[in-house]
Design goal:
Length: 520
């Protein structure tokens, strides 16, 4: 008899207006990495939330290591050795790593005091054993996103979890951090842990998973052996059709400058110069990609462009108009649309309805705004229905859905729908496909290219070098807050761009390459 760590049998879970899981069955072998693949809104996170006790199934059975289990809360799951790392981390930013890990189950000395020193030693031991490099005494607010995720994984291991659920674990990571995460998953498997990986990233599935269960619109459409299945087959299973992995676009036809950045300097949250005398031009009818490793000034630059932060020096010119000191609404009126890096902080009001979120930038205009300033809710809902259909935003209650009830990918699609509906002169997109499945990525890329072909200027900021090289016409590489080099995307060498992202000056790279050639 085969040993299964987890068996979910005919699990059904419904919410008002939508059946998230429709008689889904899943069997995960002991000690394997098992991927759960699906489009945004396919029911992946809901199924795993049932397993972790965040939701209770309406029907079906769960068996853990061959025994029936009723999991009504996360405490029940933890008692069964199940841990879950969420896409949006649940950490207290001004606590240390150790304080976060032991929160809720603090070890005590024989005198009743919290034994933080003993906890730090155990955290250090776990960190060393599983290759999760992190300082037990560091504050969360001082850690990179990748390090924060390692803390979340350590939190589950500290509670003796041997079944780990990772929910879209690479959605907020840089390419380097994704490689580190894949190594961590392999290490966990080597230590006998069972890993369930919720994802829509096919490359990661191929890298670490033995088997993959595919969900589509709430139903299990099959479990496959990953080694015997290529990415195209996985994508077709996921979306129900063939997916084009290349970006189809003709040559750019750049026109007049739309965005001109001149000597722009922007300070970061700690008062340092995050962007340093940066100059860049984006023309009508072209997509300029800003490539760089996370933390090199991209976030500060985008916030300054959107009007969230004000530069300390330099200027921002949009269509010949200086908007350096302009407010957010004035920038929108001039023709700037902004897809933010953090959809929760700057993209949506999570507690508001979807139709309200889709009207955030146009609510004061007719026909949404009536004479006298009252809102026309009927028009707002009708407009939202059109955008929801056009961008395939999966929302159980349609325009009445709360933004917080949408999956991360559907939240992103709603933001992109709102921004493109502005018909902007300049589209600033930061991480536009973060958290999206291959079908949605294909669609968003087509929309961005369509904006370019309309004569719009597009500035794309992405940590995905593959995305930058495939989608953009010109690439500007940022390192330590400054543009270190620019080049045409056509025929660009990935190693060359990657070296600049790491801070190597173009001339130094060329000299080193020439030296290697002469010794070859």
């Amino acid at each position: 008899m085969e040993t299964y760590a987890v068996e979910m049998i005919d699990v059904t879970k419904a919410f008002p207006g939508v059946v998230a899981n429709d008689r889904v069955s899943l069997a995960v072998r002991d000690g394997e990495a098992h991927a759960v693949l699906g489009e945004n809104g396919a029911g992946k996170s809901t199924l795993m939330s049932v397993l972790y006790g965040l939701y209770e199934a309406d029907a079906g059975r769960i068996r853990i290591r061959g025994a029936d289990a009723r999991i009504r809360s996360p405490n029940d799951a933890v008692a069964l050795g199940i841990g879950m790392v969420f896409q949006h981390f649940k950490l207290v930013r001004d606590y240390t790593v150790t304080e976060n890990i032991v929160l809720g189950m603090e070890p005590r000395t024989r005198f009743g005091h919290v034994d933080i020193r003993g906890a730090e030693r155990r955290v250090a031991e776990l960190s060393e054993r599983y290759g999760l490099a992190v300082d037990p005494k560091a504050k969360i607010e001082d850690l990179s996103v990748g390090a924060q995720q390692r803390v979340e994984i350590l939190k589950t291991l500290y509670r003796d979890a041997d079944i780990l659920i990772l929910d879209e674990p690479s959605a907020v990571l840089t390419p380097q951090e994704v490689d580190e995460l894949m190594a961590v998953i392999r290490r966990l498997k080597g230590e006998g842990k069972t890993v369930i990986l919720i994802t829509h990233k096919l490359r990661e599935i191929k890298a670490v998973a033995e088997r993959c269960t595919v969900l589509r619109r709430g139903r299990n459409v099959g479990t496959v052996q990953v080694a015997a299945t290529d990415e195209s087959e996985l994508a077709a299973l996921m979306v129900g059709r063939a997916v084009n992995f290349t970006v189809d676009k003709g040559p750019a036809k750049p026109g007049e400058p739309v965005l001109e950045l001149k000597g722009l300097t922007v300070k970061g949250s700690r008062g340092h110069e995050a962007v340093k005398e940066l100059s860049l031009t984006v023309r009508a009818g072209e997509i300029v990609g800003l490539a760089g490793v996370d933390g090199n000034g991209q976030s500060e630059l985008v916030r300054a462009l959107a009007g969230i932060d004000r530069p300390s020096s330099g200027s921002i010119i949009l269509k010949g108009r200086d908007i350096t000191k302009a407010g957010v609404r004035e920038r929108i009126e001039v023709g700037l649309a902004h897809v933010p890096e953090d959809r929760h902080k700057h993209g949506l009001v999570l507690g508001m309805r979807l139709d309200e979120n889709l009207a955030l930038k146009t609510f004061y205009k007719a026909p949404i705004s009536k004479p006298g300033g009252a809102l026309n809710f009927r028009v707002m809902a009708e407009r939202a229905e059109g955008l929801i259909a056009q961008f395939d935003v999966r929302a159980g209650k349609g325009p009445a859905s709360k933004a917080e009830d949408l999956s991360g990918g559907n939240q992103q699609k709603a933001i992109i729908a709102r921004e493109l509906d502005l018909d902007p002169e300049l589209l600033v997109v930061a991480q536009p496909t973060r958290g999206l499945d291959v079908g949605a990525i294909e669609y968003i890329h087509k929309r961005i290219v369509a904006e370019r072909d309309k004569g719009r200027a597009v500035l794309l900021v992405s940590f995905e070098l593959d995305e930058v090289m495939a989608l953009c016409d010109r690439i500007a590489v940022i390192s330590r807050g400054a543009i270190i080099g620019e080049l045409d995307a056509a025929g660009a060498d990935e190693r060359y761009v990657g070296a600049m992202m790491a801070g190597v000056h173009p001339e130094d790279y060329k000299a080193a390459a020439a030296g290697e050639a002469s010794h070859g």
